[in-house]
Amino acid sequence: MLALSTAQTLQLNDQGQLRHYLSIDGLSRELLTEILDTADSFLEVGARSVKKVPLLRGMTVCNVFFENSTRTRTTFELAAKRLSADVINLDISTSSTSKGESLFDTLRNLEAMAADMFVVRHGDSGAAHFIAEHVCPDVAVINAGDGRHSHPTQGMLDMLTIRRHKGDFSGLSVAIVGDILHSRVARSDMLALRTLGCTDIRVIAPKSLIPVGIEQYGVRVFHDLAAGLKDVDVVIMLRLQKERMQGGLLPSEGEFFRLYGLTQQRLALAKPDALVMHPGPINRGVEIESAVADGAQSVILNQVTYGIAIRMAVLAMAMSGQKTQRQLDQDSEV
Amino acid sequence: MSQTLPTPAELIPALAAELTAHLATRGVTQPKFVGIRTGGVWVAQALLTEMGHDVATLGTLDVSFYRDDFTQNGLHPQVQPSALPFDIEGQHLVLIDDVLMSGRTIRAALNELFDYGRPASVTLVTLIELDARELPIRADVTALRLSLPADQRVKLRGPQPLSLELRQLGAVTD
After folding, report:
1. Could you tell me the domains of chain A?
2. Residues of A with CB below 8 A from B72's CB?
3. pTM for the full model?
4. Domain coordinates in residue numbering, chain B
5. Which of B37, B70, B107, B112 to mutate to test the interface with A (most CBs of A within 10 A)?
6. What is the spatial distance between Cα A195 and Cα A257, in angstroms, rounded to a whole number?
7. Residue B16 C-alpha, separation from nearest chain A C-alpha, in angstroms
8. How far is B167 from chain A (nearest CA, A)?
């Protein structure tokens, strides 16, 4: 079992700048704000006719995905390309690991191809952390989701969505609804919201889908959707993770929708201008009704656009932190 | 050897007059103005006010994503969005910065501008031009040409009021 708390020190260089992006845990409010500000600038780049800047020209970004993903992988790819990096997509589930090569050996091989950055998705919690600790220190590692632990770019794209629509985090009430137990998005959102000064964070789910020890995140737990949604500014719906559901946690999808599905009627309990968010992919009729998902309060598709900007920011900042560290190491050797 | 510098307030009217004459010579009647963050935006605002143009029409560039020193110095921590409130395609642009030194900022700014479109022309205006060029880039219009010792820099402070300051470097970093 890895000590995930060491992610804090592993993520930063000697000057406190990002060099890996593994978890929101341990990152300061200033650093999270810097990520959001940088992403705002990249959002402007995305609105130009030439949606590309030369920042990472000549560098190679490896998308190493041990788990399926469409949205995250393609937005990381687009982000890296808009920074002018070269991108390699590696779908490990169909490559050498099935021939018996270990994770370590696969990565050493990629490193030998002079990759400057690894974007990693893995089904095991702590995988990105393991890679950041054990590959060449010059390679920046970005966590694109590890097990139930963390999905820090999704967390920050959610924060960018909230900040762009609501301005500030203090005074906001944010509800996270659904399968909290299996959700790395929920963990990253709770940590980011708290760090950025949100004081009313609510999680709404049946008892069987709430993890033990959730209190450490400074959230209020609701088992009743109507009570939890009352007067909130933001509703973050989570996907019911069918592939992670090992039976026994829920009677049926229909029952889940009846109790926890977001309908227009239930959304009316939140503030009239409340935002509806969802990390995607959405299960229509399971956790969210189509009328809500496609409704005026939904910012689900904006989240995808903001996701590219957040990923550009994190890629650029981590690469910058690595370069600075290399310079510091060289200077200290002289 | 120390020099006393004039104030920007003294330099701006001359800069405006020279720019107006320069644009007239080239037959440019409806230029679009773009300031480079941060000092160039301050100079541009003062210049537009002096020339009687609406400051709200000013475009701003943050060239952080286009700098050539990313691999040495990393990303500037306070990047702000560039904002051009007009289409630059086919337009005559006036690009404004505070101090022209190596020319690297202007190189980055030109690259960024061309990602927005193809302007008809770009005129470079700087408050000060130092003879420390590292690239073949010169200002078309400038208010003050200076020669400084290698360990001195000139810095514009602002936004209100604008002032020029000479700084001694601890060591030459070039």
Report:
1. 5-150+305-333 (3.40.50.1370), 152-299 (3.40.50.1370)
2. 323, 327
3. 0.90
4. 8-20+30-71+80-168
5. B70
6. 31
7. 31
8. 25
